[in-house]
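$ run holo --ligand "farnesyl diphosphate" --emit tokens
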Amino acid sequence: MTRAQVLEVIGSDRDEQATAALIDFDRLPRHVAIIMDGNGRWAKSRFLPRLEGHRAGVESVRSVVETAARLGLEALTVYAFSTENWKRPTDEVSGLMGLLKLYIRRELRTLQDNNIRFGVVGGLDGLPKDVQDELRRGIAETSQMTGLKFSLALNYSGRSELTDVVRRIAVAAKAGTIDPETIDEALIERHLFTAHLPEPDLLIRTSGEMRVSNFLLWQIAYAEIWVTDVLWPDFRRRHLLQAIVDFQKRERRYGGITSATGKA
Ligand code: FPP
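-- output --
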């Protein structure tokens, strides 16, 4: 990448430029998925309510969406609300729902201006009606965009997604529209929320936890996992750039044999 291109993508921060210069733009991950964690700890360390951590986390979402679009990534999916998160205190849940609505209201224009197609991965129908309406508006009004596919995973869990896929395929088999003998991986993939996306090749998790937390269980089968101690509200462009640089240093084998050593 030339210095002019780096500047165009990254802006004037010298450290970010230096990191961006290490990226091979011909080998970008196609789909980056992020488990955003540590909002609560970020707030607690500042003696603030948890919701302030989520509010600050929205800024990090803005930053990574903008960076992913500028880099030319194909897809970005962030885990914003799991099916387990309903167990949190009601004021935290309603606060998060409010942030979602606000996010679409405030960001829709920017998403459109950056040719970003917005989507939801998860049980949209299970969200409060006013939040659904706002999200559906975001989906509809960006449906013609051809750049980054940006998805919020909401009311999502990998196990419930797979359970639902099994149920739907079983119903079709019972009705005689699917022959059980023809069930293969491609058929299952077509039933996932992510059917329109490439599978994630880079999974980022913040706040140092080494877990996948029920996120895209089928889809991350071969994803490279990159964990940082940075708490989500502190995550910015430079962290995403570093994750991509490190991703490109890894050799991906998909269960095959490494070219360097000949070992499996
Ligand atoms: C995990 O931190 C974070 C969440 C459960 C929610 C993530 C939500 C946002 C970043 C804001 C909403 C996003 C948009 C785009 C409106 P945690 O609360 O589990 O943190 P902790 O482990 O430190 O307690």
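-- notes --
Residues 36-41, 54, 57-58, 61, 80, 85, 96, 99-100, 103, 152, 232 surround farnesyl diphosphate (CB under 6 Å).
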